[in-house]
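User: Sequence in, structure out. Go.
Assistant: Echoing your sequence, followed by the structure tokens.
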Amino acid sequence: MNCTAESPKGTAMLEVRRLRLLRELQLRGTLAAVAKALSYSPSTISQQLAQLEKDAGVALLEPDGRRVRLTPYGEVLAAHAARVLDLEEAVRAELASVQPGLTPVRIAVMQTAAQAILPRALDLLAERLPGLRVEVVEVPPEEGLFELSARTFDLVVAEQYPGHTRAHTPTLDREPLGSDPMRLALPPGDPANELRELGDRAWVMEPEGTAARQWAVQQCRAVGFEPDVRFELADLNAQVRLVAAGHAVGMLPDLLWTDITPPVRLVPLPGNPVRDLFTATRAATSREGVRAVREALRDALSELVG
């Protein structure tokens, strides 16, 4: 949409690309974060938002210490910008329906989905929609869901743990993908048979702030101890290697073992918990390619656990 022309009354029309910058600032909070996400310089972002202010005819930003924040006018325009971007996405989806492979589908996946589910899903897509281009980035679910709202991705594979459900966002559409049992992972020679016996062990867990970390710590507290987390690793394969070498114990999902024999000793957790896997897209997304990817992921997981 090229909206650089002026209306008859002399008020400049608003460019979609500048509206997106305002919406990004509303989501990310700082000009530096917007610049990093969109691969622009902060000065470029500032210049474009300054032009948007001129086009709108009202102040959209105001100083907030060393940063800036949206004014009430800015908040109103950012809300409208979100709707404009949804409409633009709907238009692109309709155009893409004529030639489904024309627009790439950008996916954010967590590590276990990338390893266990993605290869088979891509096989299925090659059969069902051979012209479709799929672009995949491995990111933590927390980051993936945020970037989905910010339109960096079209679809996200994420997880949630028992008692630790993720917030539902009206602008995102979620569908169940499947479930994945969680079990204790112990060194091969460790004699423990219950979680409560592991209060004196060194633990490896995912980093602070992740749902997996919060959930795992709660499991330990529920049986009476605070885990001694000596190793924080987002890479689950690295966690496996530490446990197998006898340096730590952990809690790991069964999807890690879909094509290998576990090099660790697996022990049930209390209540035999499972994490729920789901896919999420923006509610405004209706592209055939996105639907096809979603179905392929679901079918691929079904084959694995079936």
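User: And one key feature?
Assistant: Residues 1-10 have pLDDT under 50 and may be disordered.
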